[in-house]
Amino acid sequence: MDAWIEELRNVDCSNIGRADPKLRALSARITVTLRRCFGEPSASFDEFRGASTLQASTYASDRGYYSQQAAHLISRSILLLEEAKRVLKEDLADLQHEPSSALPEVNKLEPKTLSRRVFVVHGHDEGARETVARFLMQLGFDPIILHEQANQGRTVMEKVEAHGNVDFAVVLLTPDDEGCAKGGTPEPRARQNVLLELGYFLGRLGRNKVCALKRGTVEIPSDFAGVVWESMNENGWKQALGRELEAAGHEINWNKVMRA
Fold first, then answer.
1. Are 144 and 137 in contact (CB under 8 A)?
2. What is the DSSP-derived secondary structure letter of residue 181?
3. Bridge-based pairing state of the strands 210-214 and 168-173
4. CB within 8 Å of 81: residues ≥ 6 apart
5. 117-259 architecture in CATH?
6. Could you tell me which of 217, 214, 218, 259 has the C-alpha nearest to residue 239?
7. Which long-range contacts (CB under 8 A, 24 or more apart) does 23-28 make?
8. Are 234 and 194 in contact (CB under 8 A)?
9. Where are the beta strands (DSSP E) in the chain?
10. How many Å apart are CA 168 and CA 245, to the nearest integer?
11. Any idea of the CA torsion for 88, 203, 209, 84, to the nearest 10 degrees?
């Protein structure tokens, strides 16, 4: 943790913008470190996970707003990491004083093996769906696409629940529908089922295990504003998805990512 504390102290906040890539990468590494030190779920992990929040999640037209918020959140992160380091040292000291008979029980604890199944939520854009599915398969993941699963007399939501036993979800926000407030101008929107399943997996897995990929011009729901999404209109979306998977605890072969 000393390395992350030192790196945070050296961050220049004077030119920080929204979704700064350096801070996003640092946030992901801090999350992985906390997960390895305290395990997830755990009370200690929940107590210190705020150390990975380094940027404001709301939109603002004033660039200085992001610099001020980043400075505040970085200071908060340093304090949390210092406290996490102290707690970890105390836990290790207590463990060393445990009777030797208790040590075998500690050694039996093994980290959870994450499933390689990734649920792919999609609308009508078959090209985006197939592109993401092929990329996941190249990385050794098993993409779960709902319409490819047998119905067995179940409703769509029952199928989602039946096949939703995954440790990560990718949600494709594509301009398949149009909508607006009453009297307004219709704007491109994602399918309603996509938004429903997005909310389902955010609640089931947590935001850190859901990656939203946006293709084209799509209206983002107000409740989702401020949550980071990646643009499929740019070439770097594969690397971005790989980073999100790695931050969620999955092993990633970066040679395959770069060749995909």
1. no
2. S
3. parallel
4. 1, 4, 5, 8, 30, 48, 51
5. 3-Layer(aba) Sandwich (3.40)
6. 259
7. 23/54, 23/55, 23/70, 24/54, 24/55, 24/228, 24/243, 25/243, 26/54, 27/52, 27/53, 27/54, 27/55, 28/52, 28/243, 28/244, 28/246, 28/247
8. no
9. 117-121, 142-145, 168-173, 177-179, 187-189, 210-214, 230-231
10. 8
11. -10
Cα 219 to chain center, whole Å? 21
- 18 φ/ψ angles, rounded to the nearest 5 degrees: -70, 140
Q: Both tokens of residue 206?
A: 């947590």
**Predicted TM-score of the model (pTM):** 0.56
Rg of the Cα trace of the chain?
21
The per-residue pLDDT for range 137-148, each reduced to its tens digit, is: 999 999 999 888
Q: Is the peptide bond before 221 cis (omega within 30 degrees of 0)?
A: no
Residue 206 falls in which region: left (phi positive, over 0), alpha (psi -120 to 50) or beta: left
Beta-bridge partner residues of 108: none
pLDDT of residue 249: 92
At 225 the pLDDT is 58
Q: pLDDT tens-digit profile of 174-226? A: 998 888 888 888 889 899 999 899 989 989 999 889 999 999 888 877 666 55
Q: Residue 92: CB partners within 8 Å, gap ≥ 6?
A: none
pLDDT in tens, 221-248: 766 655 667 888 777 899 999 999 999 9
For residue 186, with 0-12 CB atoms within 10 Å meaning exposed, 13-18 middle and 19 or more buried, which class applies? exposed
